[in-house]
Write a structure and sequence with these properties.
Blueprint: H1 3-20, H2 28-49, E1 53-61, E2 64-72, H3 74-88
Antiparallel strand pairs: 1-2
Helix pairs in contact: 1-2, 1-3, 2-3
Length: 90
């Protein structure tokens, strides 16, 4: 999933929770503002707690297939998600 899609999904999920709950947040604009803040809190926690992600890659060299683990900077992906969420505030 691309960072923009992840940001949209997170904000929309929080917005739906706020909209569907029995709260004083009936105003959609207010729900959206709160959803953005919640999504930012979640992304900051993800960045802090999970700086790296290990993935497996398979590479073919002249008909020989090799699989190896590669450390990917998961933090960079979530920073992009954070930027996309921050764009909602502008």
């Amino acid at each position: 999933m691309k960072p923009k899609e992840q940001a949209d999904q997170m904000v929309n999920e929080y917005r739906m929770i706020l909209t569907n709950e029995n709260t004083e947040c009936g105003n959609e604009i207010l729900c959206t503002m709160i959803a953005i803040k919640c999504a930012l809190v979640a992304v900051k926690a993800i960045i802090k707690a999970n700086p790296h992600l290990w993935i497996q890659r398979t590479v073919n060299y002249v008909g020989v297939s090799r699989t190896y683990d590669e450390e990917v900077l998961n933090k960079e992906y979530w920073r992009e998600v954070k930027k996309e969420i921050e764009n909602y505030e502008q």
